[in-house]
Write the structure tokens for this entry.
Amino acid sequence: MRVPLTNRKESTVSARNQENLRRRSFLKFAGFATASTAIVLSGCKEVLDQLPYPVDVDPDDYVLKTVRLGKGDTGVLNYAYTLEQLEAEFYIQVVASSSFASMFNYYEQRSLREIRDHEVVHRDFLKAALGEKAIGQLKFDFKAVNFEDKQSILQTAKTFEDLGIAAYNGAGKRLASADLLTIAGKIVSVEARHASIIRSLVDTDPTSFAGDDIIDMNGLDLAYEPAKVLEAANPFILNKIDASEL
Amino acid sequence: MNIFDLLNTIDPQKITLDEQMASGRRAMFRQLGDWGKKMALGAIPLAATVTPRKAMAAHEDNADVLNFALLLEYLENEFYMMGLDTIVPKGTNDEKVFMQISKHEKQHVEFLQAAIKSIGGTPIDKPEFDFTAGGAFMPFSDYDQFKVLSQAFEDTGVRAYKGQAANLIDNDTLLTAALQIHSIEARHAAKIRMMRDEFGWIYFNHRGRGMPYATQPVYSGENMQTQAGVNLKTITTVDEGGFTGAFDEPLTKEEVTAIASLFLKK
């Protein structure tokens, strides 16, 4: 079991989950020793602040399942779906930040909104394409990100976009279907467009959009194996991802 | 909608098409031998090839695919070298950007030449280019036009590599390298678009502000409503500008050749 999160910002608690928490019997939480005192002594809001687990995780799901990506092309698509869920959730929170309009200028705001839209489309498309073979909704942990800080947001975005490119480029050879390979190509170039824009927004070096820090001597972009990608993504994903069948 | 079911579904129309092609191919093979075989298979539209790779009869010759890519890289490489010698403002951030892009295109030329030789092929010679396209553009005396053509070439490069990826599916090394070049082209394209005060991606099939009508073939077909049989309108709340921007579309070799031919010296 993962170390529970603390100090979650209330702004990240969806209205639905707040309602769920209020509706459920407090007794359900009594097993959590650190919370139980607070429940007795305080009102609901303090309970939300002090619960020893991320409040935006449904208590019933607190013991998060290991998620098996599967094998073959299903596994590769679920692997992509994992990363697109991560990116979509990240940008949704970025755009929802109370400081969004004050941190970013017009070009930045529109770019980030549209990147969010693209990632949501990628997520929704992969879910639909996978149908019943799709993994479930994953749980994420963005406590390393300060959504009130421009640099923190853009540096995280840069990490995710470069990682997405590396993942798709590295996974192409694992796809058996030529059609799915083309579909993956349709998505990865949009990720590369995102990476180029994000890098231009966050870095002062004008060559950063395709910088020497990532592009090799043959002018080739990143390409990582799934294990390396998931290791980098792991701190942001609460579920354990089992990619062993890929 | 499940893509695997979709791919497994026996589509009568597709079968007919495949059978027609198969019989047509057999006839051609008898008449034309290996050369005809290669050409006939190369002419099959990508959309018709839903067969998993292990079962695919053949692909376009890998060296031909790489030579096609090499032609585009020759074009881009010479374009940026000439631009840096003439119109790109010296000592500016723009110059640093175009030097970085130019460096990559030169690396791609050398990489592809070496890759073609490594599989026993012969790299094509660099053709002579005419970047005015017969007098239609003045990229080396008008900086805006230089950036217009730069964007058109990069956005074309993205679509061209994407269209060829499936032809390299049997060679993991070449496929991965092609994908690694493909995403670089997309990084370049987005950067130039940003320098032209555009957003980094393509809305619908719009060529965007300041792009002349002659560049429209670079953007036609970018406004796809469905992907892998999934109607995007029905599965996401994101609007059409968003879901067309979320996917870049491939171009066929013929479509790319038609664009590149405009810039070959007549």
